[in-house]
Design goal:
The protein is of the alpha/beta class. It folds into three domains: 45 residues, no CATH class; 246 residues, Aldolase class I (TIM Barrel); 42 residues, no CATH class. The strands form five sheets. Strands 16-15-14-13-12-11-9-8-20 form a nine-stranded mixed β-sheet. A three-stranded antiparallel β-sheet has the order 1-6-5, with no helix packed on it. A three-stranded antiparallel β-sheet has the order 2-3-4, with no helix packed on it. Helix 3 links the parallel strand 11 and strand 12. Helix 2 crosses helix 3 and helix 7 crosses helix 8. The two termini are 36 Å apart.
Length: 364
């Protein structure tokens, strides 16, 4: 927390406490800082009696991905998305799958520099339909993500946030006003799991999901990483899926993803494919219309059916789309039922490619 703060950008959402410390008001951690200290996320800190962001304009790398990798199955299916993240995280997940980025305390990992305008221009030049703030949680680099979102919208690009949803109401409102779609990690459905395995709390995440669904036009999908023995019981999956249906509605897509041993949970075995299938069956039984499996080869669990007539509409094999039968208006080609999501003229599948991109800086 006391590592010297060098490159900085003015941060928002903070106030001075009576004892002279500065409190960060971005997320429920409410970090209280003396001069020179960093918050738990490591990228927001206090310098010269102000809150600063140390990763503005700096990235851990840029890649073009399939939109299905975010994962988003109902947002411009088959399209490519320009993806990037920075470093740090405001959660402390012991099972983090991107821990080399999100848990990094080495600012030298941020080798690529780019302005919001350069990111938007490069994404457009590569034919991407959207830009995703991902790999680590964009909440902690909100100022950079929001400015980039403005630059993207100016060029007709959509924006995507891949986030744990751990954010206070005021910055949440401003941040998601800039986003067109979000995949929110609902990491479990017990406070005990959140507290012991992520160092955070469940309630703010549920609040974010309710806010997004009820008070915004952001397209929302949910991902739950199922960890053997931690959050994969029938009872917990029953409770989670019933809550989603009751509070968010049956049309919010839910992705159950497979855990693989990593970071501080390297002693737990990978999630069996049967666990994902069981979870999917429970969710469908509780009335959810669109439930998917991830991180495993499961064509059935990755495909989309019409909730009206049951017809198979989008056949996916990993990130490849093998068949597509949703109209540009977002309806079933067989029965005309509305399919929840954001659809337009299907232009083919970007597939399983992952294309690293280096941004060429423009100098005046």
């Amino acid at each position: 927390m006391d590592e010297p703060i060098t490159d900085t950008w003015p941060a928002r959402w903070w106030h001075v406490l009576d004892d002279g410390r500065i409190q960060c008001d971005l997320c429920p951690r409410d970090c209280r800082l003396h001069e020179g200290q960093r918050g738990a996320c490591f990228v927001r800190g206090r310098k010269d009696d102000k809150m600063v962001l140390t990763t503005y304009g700096r990235s851990s790398g840029f890649c073009i991905d399939p939109i299905e990798k975010k994962p988003l199955n109902h947002f411009l299916p088959g399209s490519s998305v320009f993806s990037f993240g920075t470093a740090g995280c405001n959660l402390a997940c012991k099972f983090c799958q991107n821990w080399d980025i999100s848990k990094s305390r080495d600012m030298d990992r941020l080798m690529d520099a780019a302005s919001p305008q350069e990111i938007a221009r490069t994404a457009a030049e590569h034919g991407c339909r959207s830009v995703a703030f991902t790999y680590n949680d964009p909440v902690i680099f909100a100022e950079y993500a929001m400015d980039t979102a403005d630059a993207c919208h100016a060029l007709g690009l959509e924006t995507v946030a891949v986030t744990a949803g751990y954010i206070h109401p005021e910055p949440r409102r401003e941040f998601f006003a800039k986003m067109d779609a979000a995949n929110v990690d609902l990491k479990a459905f017990t406070e005990d799991f959140y507290f012991k395995l992520t160092g955070s709390h469940l309630a703010p995440v549920l609040d974010t999901l309710i806010y997004l669904k009820r008070e915004t036009d952001v397209w929302v999908e949910i991902t739950t990483l199922l960890i053997p023995g931690k959050n994969d019981s029938d009872a917990e999956i029953e409770a989670l899926t019933k809550w989603v249906n009751r509070e968010l509605g049956p049309d919010v897509p839910l992705h159950f993803s497979a855990f693989h041993p990593d970071y501080k949970l390297s002693d737990i075995p990978p999630t069996p494919a049967a666990t994902l299938t069981r979870a999917r069956d429970i969710a469908l039984g509780n009335g959810l219309h669109y439930v998917y499996t991830g991180n495993v080869h499961d064509k059935a669990g990755g495909s989309t059916h019409c909730p009206g007539c049951g017809k198979l509409l989008i056949v996916r094999d990993w990130y490849d789309i093998l068949d597509y039968r949703v109209t540009p208006e977002g309806t079933c080609s067989a029965c005309g039922a509305a399919i929840a999501g954001r659809f337009d003229e299907y232009q083919g599948s970007f597939g399983q490619r992952r294309i690293p991109v280096h941004i060429l800086r423009q100098h005046a």
